[in-house]
Design a protein that fits this description.
Structural class: mainly beta
CATH architecture of one domain: Sandwich
Distance between the termini: 41 Å
CATH class of one domain: Mainly Beta
Radius of gyration: 16 Å
Number of strands: 5
Strand content: 15-25%
CATH topology of one domain: HSP40/DNAj peptide-binding domain
Helix content: under 10%
Strand order of the largest sheet: 1-5-4
Order of helices and strands: EEEEE
Number of helices: 0
Length: 77
C-alpha cells in the first residue's frame, strides 16, 4: 500500500467506549463523575436502556451503561 493511501472503511473499527458500567435497571443517570470530582463532570442526564440492544451511551462522556443479563452484557453467559 502506498504511503498516504486510504484504508477501506471495513477495516476501521470503532474505538471502545471509555467506560462500561453494568446496571440492573433500565433507567440510569449520568453526570460524568466517578473517578473525577462531580464539579468536573457534565450536567446530569437521565437515560433509558433499550431492552432489545441492552445498553445506552451518554451523549456527553460516552460512558456505556449495559443491562446485566441483557444482549450487550458480555459477562452474562
Amino acid at each position: 500500500m502506498e504511503a498516504g493511501a486510504l484504508l477501506p472503511r471495513a477495516s476501521m473499527k470503532a474505538p471502545p467506549p471509555p467506560e462500561v458500567i453494568r446496571v440492573s435497571t433500565l433507567q440510569v443517570a449520568c453526570d460524568g463523575s466517578g473517578e473525577i470530582a462531580p464539579d468536573l463532570g457534565h450536567p446530569r442526564v437521565f437515560l433509558r436502556i433499550d431492552e432489545e440492544i441492552g445498553f445506552v451511551e451518554c451523549g456527553y462522556c460516552d460512558r456505556r451503561f449495559v443491562l446485566e443479563g441483557g444482549p450487550a452484557d458480555s459477562k452474562a453467559a
